[in-house]
Design brief:
The chain is mainly α and about 300 residues long. It has one domain: TIM Barrel (Alpha-Beta Barrel), CATH 3.20.20. The protein has helices at about 5-15, 65-70, 75-85, 90-110, 120-150, 170-175, 180-200, 220-225, 240-245, 250-265; strands at about 20-25, 30, 45-50, 210, 275-280, 295-300. Helix 1 packs parallel to helix 7 (about 180-200), helix 2 (about 65-70) packs antiparallel against helix 4 (about 90-110) and helix 5 packs across helix 7 (about 180-200). The chain is globular.
């Protein structure tokens, strides 16, 4: 399947043919397994799908002989060839194969850069600090889901009760005992962010990359961290409650605006002075079978 390397080739071609931008489907984070492969029903709109990382462009590959040896092995190449020859993208298999290399690259990053005064180590520290608790919370959720999925399924509401909230003692213990895996998820978001920025500035495009934004998210990370911040709908498009938006001093909106800007550093997205959010009512307001009404929510 395509990755940032393929996208770079497309951007270069577009620049040579005098295009202004390249438009993309949402790159939001997904489970990459089963039916959870739609970019319009993501785990989160704030983080991206690490399946798109171009392994050959990860800086650690040059210094990690173990990773290069794995890629060159006959078994790895056999699996890679099989995946490329398939008619449809096997998301779970692609992610599993890439992860076998990415784990080695993360280990090399930890040994050479993390908590060290190197350019890349400092860039990672800045990224983690800038994204704050949100990044660590997302990384924790991803690792929890991988850990609990086989026994309890991907729906966090069916997980054992102590793991249905990020604020329990059990989740904190899990976070400490799986710190390396959680750090790897942060590292993958950091590297993908770097690759997207590099591709977006390539090709001499006046605008760069235009990234689509999904309307909502699946019943996943957003619900998990703050279920009271969302209206309970059956559309899998959970809008934020008015109270949560106002109490966060519009942080929820600012995070999404910041995400949009990262796609095209040459094009400044200026939000309107007044943002109108529309919330569909719950089914209990639709007993007569009529179209569900929209409730405007002005935020100044």
């Amino acid at each position: 399947m395509g990755d940032m390397g393929v996208l770079r080739s497309l951007v270069d071609w577009a620049g040579e043919n005098h295009a202004a931008f390249v438009g993309l489907n949402p790159l939001h984070a997904l489970n990459n397994r089963g039916a959870d492969i739609s970019p319009y029903s993501p785990l989160s709109r704030l983080y991206r799908n690490v399946i798109y990382i171009d392994i050959e462009q990860v800086p650690e590959l040059a210094d990690c002989a173990e990773a290069r040896s794995l890629i060159a092995s006959s078994d790895f190449q056999r699996q890679l060839t099989g995946l490329r020859e398939r008619r449809h993208v096997a998301y779970e298999s692609v992610m599993a194969l890439k992860s076998s290399v990415l784990r080695l690259l993360h280990r090399a990053f930890v040994d050479r850069h993390r908590d060290r005064n190197t350019e890349r180590g400092q860039a990672y520290a800045d990224f983690v600090e800038r994204r704050g608790e949100s990044l660590t919370g997302f990384a924790t959720f991803v690792v929890l889901a991988d850990h609990l999925n086989s026994a309890h399924g991907p729906d966090w509401r069916l997980w054992p009760a102590p793991y249905r909230s990020p604020h329990t003692a059990e989740v904190e213990t899990f976070r400490q005992s799986h710190s390396d895996q959680i750090d790897m998820q942060r590292y993958l978001q950091f590297e993908l962010d770097r690759q997207i920025a590099s591709v977006g500035s390539a090709g001499g495009l006046p605008i760069g990359l235009y990234g689509d934004l999904a309307i909502g998210t699946a019943d996943s990370y957003g619900y998990f961290i703050s279920p009271s911040h969302h209206h309970a709908l059956n559309y899998r498009l959970p809008p934020h409650t008015k109270a949560s938006v106002l109490s966060s001093r519009h942080r929820l909106i600012r995070e999404r605006m910041a995400l949009i800007r990262t796609f095209s550093p040459k094009y400044h997205f200026k939000p309107p002075k007044e943002l109108m959010l529309r919330i569909r009512c719950n089914d209990r307001f639709n007993r007569n079978g009529r179209q569900r009404p929209w409730i405007p929510m002005p935020i100044k």
